[in-house]
Amino acid sequence: MAGRDHGGGIDAARARYGGGRAAWLDLSTGINPEPYPVTVAPEAWTSLPDSGAMERLLGAARAFWTVPEDAAIVAGAGASALIAQIPFLAPAERVSIPARTYNEHAASFRYAGWEIGENAPAAVIVHPNNPDGALYPAPNAPFSVIDESFCDVTPEASHIAEAARPGRIVLKSFGKFWGLAGLRLGFAIGDPALIDALAARLGPWAVPGPALEIGARALEDEAWAAATRIRLAKDAARLDALLLGHGARAIGGTTLFRLYDVADAAAVHDALAQHHVLTRVFPYSRAWLRLGMPPSGRWEQLERALETAGGTAGGAIRAGTASRGSAVPSS
Fold this sequence. Notes:
The chain has helices spanning about 10-15, 45, 50-65, 80-85, 105-110, 190-200, 210-220, 220-245, 265-275, 300-310; strands at about 25, 70-75, 95, 115, 120-125, 145, 170-175, 185-190, 250-255, 255-260, 275-280, 280, 285-290. By secondary structure, the protein is α/β, with parallel strands linked by helices. The strands form three sheets. Strands 2-8-7-6-5-3-4 form a seven-stranded mixed β-sheet, with helices on both faces. It has a four-stranded antiparallel β-sheet with strand order 9-10-13-12, covered by helices on one side. Helix 3 (about 50-65) packs parallel to helix 7 (about 210-220) and helix 4 packs parallel to helix 5 (about 105-110). Helix 5 (about 105-110) links the parallel strand 3 (about 95) and strand 4. The two termini are about 35 Å apart.
């Protein structure tokens, strides 16, 4: 399958702009920059993952997300691994997927022989949406996927209460909110028949022992989750104030990433990269620029880069007018 546009890619940025990895401030993703603290028992590395560890993880997930009793749940090696398998759970037909959203959904359905279109018997939403943070009602299609990878910052918006409906799957990502993307852990929750079929496709030991242990401990730590939501909300407000002070216009996002309207996103992206700050631009909009949250000790680097970019980018940070589409809702 061909490579697709995503955040990250520090190696490619270094090849173009120079600098060691430690010099780069990667704001191109929506990953929590202050992750859950990790400790792992030695046996988690040396033993095959046991059933007790998986049961603890799934039990913690059920409690954390208030999963309905009659919904099933399976864990896999990241939400993307689950996304790649989900289209094979139903006969290929037509699926409705918003055009401006996480692109792996459309790619996976196309690979499985599906057609992307409207008025379809299948539907996918990313809720909150990436990159604009839009919140959607739950789809009513007979086969529906609700990707809630970024919903842990706004748990009140979750559609998890409807997860047990026939034909429904709700996806949860561990790497975003807990900041441990490299752990590769994700969950599919929903219609027991679909979840059982998905589990069969994943095979045994779909989640490694260290991920089972770390994931269970993190999901059980409600105090950390509550404190993290408060911190991320403060950081998102700080980021908005900083970008608006340079002339950008905030048009959406979550507290893990913010989306801005600028006059020339590519120029701003380039100007910031000159100072080893990596942001996200999108092939379908010359005006949209997305930034994740800096870690607590790296805000000054972003501030300095913006001060310089405001001059060298020839006013490209200033919010555009001709290039704007309709405003998107913030979350």
